[in-house]
Structure prediction request, 570 residues.
Amino acid sequence: MVGRSNSEFTSRNGRFDLGKMGQDINRLTGNLCFGISVVILVVFIFIVTRYQPNAPPTKITSFLASTSDATFKSDGSVIKTGEDFITNVNRSIATLSFINITDIAEEQHYPTPIECDVDKPMTCNTPEIFHLLMRATIEAFNDTHFYRFGKPITSGVDDTSCDIAWKYRPKDAKRDSLYKDYRRFVIKHNTDCSYTVVSIGEYHSGVNARKKKKKAIANNNDGRFESNWNPNSDVTGQMNMPVVGDVVNDSLPIMDSEVNFSSGKYLVYTDGGERCKSMDHYIWSFLCALGEAQHLNRTLVVDLSICLSSMYSLSNQDEEGKDFRFYFDFEHLKESTPIIDQAQFWNDWEMWYKRNNLNLYFVEDFRVTPMKLESVPDTLIMRKFGTVEPDNYWYRVCEGETESVIQRPWHLLWKSKRLIEIVSGIASKMNWDFDAVHIIRGEKAKNTRLWPNLETDTSPTALLNILSDKIDGGRNLFISTDEEDTSFFDPLKDKYTVHFIDDFKDLWEVKSDWYVETRELNNGIPVEFDGYMKAEVKTEVFLRAKKQLETFNDLTKDCKDGINTCTSSP
Ligand SMILES: *[C@@H]1O[C@H](CO)[C@@H](O)[C@H](O)[C@H]1NC(C)=O
Ligand SMILES: *[C@@H]1O[C@H](CO)[C@@H](O)[C@H](O)[C@H]1NC(C)=O
Ligand SMILES: *[C@@H]1O[C@H](CO)[C@@H](O)[C@H](O)[C@H]1NC(C)=O
Ligand SMILES: *[C@@H]1O[C@H](CO)[C@@H](O)[C@H](O)[C@H]1NC(C)=O
Ligand SMILES: *[C@@H]1O[C@H](CO)[C@@H](O)[C@H](O)[C@H]1NC(C)=O
Ligand SMILES: *[C@@H]1O[C@H](CO)[C@@H](O)[C@H](O)[C@H]1NC(C)=O
Prediction:
């Protein structure tokens, strides 16, 4: 295939003069790319040469089966994205000093006034209250490192409570993220004019302190302290690491000027066989497109509407119209690489392409490598994919000689921060002090031919036996499982405080932050917490546990992929 002559490529992949096709395109752009491709197919009479791959597309198979860092595991139990591979964070975190309570205590020289009016409404934003709240927080959460406190803000509900936010990391964190919490403190003004903290509210109760107001965070009343405690003015920016809990702004980027739009260069992928496939397949393909766009220094035009495969949907049907932002961190993506939503793109294109003489370069064969497109001057490169699988998979662009040139930009794709916030909510409710066991039963347990011992090895009796060696009695135990009837594990409750993901469903049900925010994103229509979201959350909670036991290896000697498959990775 590599030997194919150039002339054949040019006959199928050429430059378009939009003067000639203007009308067609004009009519079509409204119809988005599906329509466009149809007309282009009509305009271009091409010979259908069926490409028979010499070898089956092993890449996706090996990626799915691999346990290497850059890939996923095949059973869907661990769905990794960019933030899972952050490697320089230990170093960065080491350079960030966390706030030591002794620093605050030393500075505690607030002369108590002789007289005060204890009935006067309290002012939250004073150095005295600020230090009081910081001390109370550090003492209450002694398993936590604190990196920054925001300014206390009146709760707005009464005269005796203040909200304050902070960024923290659990002391023995398994994952490199900072988290944000904000809570409501009830404060008593004593008759001797001093203050005491009466109570600290639940996780995320201090909603008034949540907002990312420039003035609300840092450099407040005690500038010297702030700079001592936190020499880095922007923790996130410096460390390129997720901060979970900030208000998410994943609004679509807006290209607001004709000049800027017209001077840009774009890449778009249309059609193809990825629709409604597994999310792994989607990610693998999406990152290929993104890698090509980066290689070509072009803005990627993305379709943010994705199809959720029946394997994850609650209806067991493929479901169209899911927003990319339900699953992935679009804010991080748009801040890290040039990207534009396709609806906006086609809108702008229609308005401006003619006046600015913008051209489209059409590529219809995935074997045209990104390297061959480097010198294409046209504003838009459009790759169109056909109907025949597997030739119509986007990721095929990144195969062959391209593989050594284009690395998938994993660091750009993070999981939705709204989902990770649910994860941090669950972990917080267990005080970040829990162990976890992943118990796979389901179809595999029924199939005694391939997994002869799985059923018995994951029975409550066997579990109690194995766990008693590894996890102390009385611990919080998070069970991530595909067993539908969780009462099956009731015997474990005698020994452990057992938690399942559904015990925390108030974090995504009606009235939760997640519910309200995703509904807003979805034009007012409530979003279902689907199987993929749940899998992501379960997996991420598991990964934050102090002790983590996996089914294969830890609970049973059966092999993950069936009998006698343990040779490489059990
Ligand atoms: C960070 O350090 C801990 C122990 O100090 C280690 O277990 C962990 O693997 C390190 N993480 C990374 C990403 O280097
Ligand atoms: C915090 O202060 C205590 C007492 O001065 C000291 O022992 C400890 O090392 C300090 N911790 C950090 C991280 O600076
Ligand atoms: C943390 O607080 C708990 C209870 O509040 C206490 O039992 C524990 O000893 C404290 N740990 C440290 C290291 O101070
Ligand atoms: C969100 O970010 C965009 C830039 O990407 C900005 O224009 C917009 O004002 C922000 N919205 C809010 C509510 O902060
Ligand atoms: C156009 O782009 C430049 C550079 O990216 C930016 O500084 C400028 O604000 C943009 N103009 C408009 C109107 O968006
Ligand atoms: C993309 O930009 C980089 C840096 O500006 C440059 O080195 C590279 O040659 C460019 N690649 C293409 C295909 O234009």
Observations:
- Residues 93-209 form one domain.
- The chain has three domains: 93-209, 264-412, 417-555.
- The mean pLDDT is 80.
